[in-house]
Amino acid sequence: MTRLRSVLERARDEDRGMILGNVLIFGTVMMLLVATMIAVSTSGAVKSATDRNFQNAMAAAYAGLADYQSKLSNDNGYALHGNSSAQFSKASGSSFSGQADNIAFTNAGSTWAKVVGSTDQWYRYEVDNSNYSAKGVLKVRVTGKSGGSVRSLVANLKGDGFINYLYFTNYESSNPAITGSTCTTVYQWQSASNKCAAVQFAGTDVLNGPIRTNDVFTAACATVFNGPVEQHDTSVRPASGTCAGTFNGGAASAVPYLGLPALNSNLSQETRVDLPTSVPRPGCLYTGPTRVSFLGNGKMTVWSPWTKATQVQVSGSTGEVKAGADTAKAAALCGAVADLQSSAGATIPTLPTNLMYVQDIPSAANDVNAWAANTFPSRYTNTYCTTTVTVRSNGSATTTNNQAFNNGQGFPAPGEWVNGGQSGSYYQTGSASDTYSCSAGDVFVSGGFSGAMTIAASGTVWVTDDITYASATNDVLGLVGQNAVEIYNPARCSSYPTTYQPRVGYVTDTTRCNQSGVGLLNRSSGAGITISAAMASNAGTFWNQNYDIGPKLGVLKVVGSIAQNWRGAVATTGSTGFSKNYVYDQRLLTTAPPKFLQPVSTSYGVTTQVEVQTAYKVDGSCATTSSGACR
After folding, report:
1. ∠ CA(292), CA(431), CA(291), 5° rounding?
2. CA dihedral 468, 439, 410, 486 (to 10 degrees)
């Protein structure tokens, strides 16, 4: 019994030991589970905070981009502000006039711009303006920071300019100075007595692209709009009845006013060599009537007899305009002055992503391109600029047995009759010297174009024949005429009336042309013309000379865009002039001809945007590449 008791007591003690061991093991497992749950919970909180910072860093970058867009929209000149020592700007060769006290341009240290309304979001940005003058495009790298997260994005910005539209007008009525009307120019949605009537889109017109006006459009029922229609209000006016075209691009929408500048003379600043910050690549200045023939091979021939200096500098104290110091460089780019004044002209490459500006002959004596009274270019003969003549209907002169006289560039052409408009049963003879001025900054352009450049004129840009691109992908041309961009479409007169003069008899009256004798000089029925270019007339119009006489012509094909202050006529309904085929060049949504005309004010939109490797560390120092260089 004693042995049995001993065995049972030993077994009981062993059971207690096993239970205690099990309790210890279970407790340890529970402690491990609790510790694991605490660790998981803590890591989840850390991950949640990291995710939030990661998202907020990009939100801060977007806020920085919006801040820069806002500053650009309020000041078009803000593209010249930035930090030239920032890596993104320095690598692109960008140049700036200053930082405008904007801490967002900081590129080192702990200083960041704070996102308004936030306590933990910051940003800074760097600007690449190297393509701004050439293509109207700005590139900006924005870096956002939140907590320990930093993220960067790069965006391309482009202003909401005239070239965003196939067709832009300020007024939908015609220029009274061209039509000879005494009507009052106001918008069609305004009330006014003797209001100028709107020019309507015809039933044969097809608009293949976005169009916009500060006025309201008027259209025939058969007009086809294949792109967005933007105007002062949402109702396109019908030319007759109740319908106003087919809107394949959607119903018309109301948009804010987009202002044309009164003058384009600011473009002439692009030919100055003394403004290295705002004009890092000066273009070419030509003076007086100038002719340009594109040769289709990346070259052009330029005739500009009145030009003495093609790049200039201006004295800040006296206003004196002098030739740029490096005349050899100017001659290589713009043509030698002696060649420009010669009968052969200067054959040079089309200006590489640059601008040529044609100015009036200056009247100020301290301007290098001025001419003293009664002095003229060498070899400048047989013109009504150098000879006192009475210019008759076709440019002939009464003093020299009908020898033809012109403005030095061949206008008016031999046999051309200058149309002064209809008066009763006759057409009046216009003034040849007023139409084709000897001293105005007019330019006469035609040919196959290859390159990227803009031609701007203080007077009129005359399109004398087809202008076509050698490459629809690579070539881009801008034409900007202060007074007009005008299709050269000369007239002739084959029948003048006669008048009886006592003691003289019947004499030909060249001040008028019989209605039956009026026609076109060099275009016949069905003839068309193609213009590949972005065109703008900031104070005038785009129109067809003598649109209202002669036979019904062919198609006026425009590949590009048109912007104008007044609506210009190219035909009369079904009787004379061209039918329209306007096609928008989609490339103009993301680029522009070099140094093209800009609106008075505009908003800047993002054309492309992509996240990139972070440009900065959390402490504000630059992030580096594998070689140790700043990104």
Report:
1. 5
2. 40
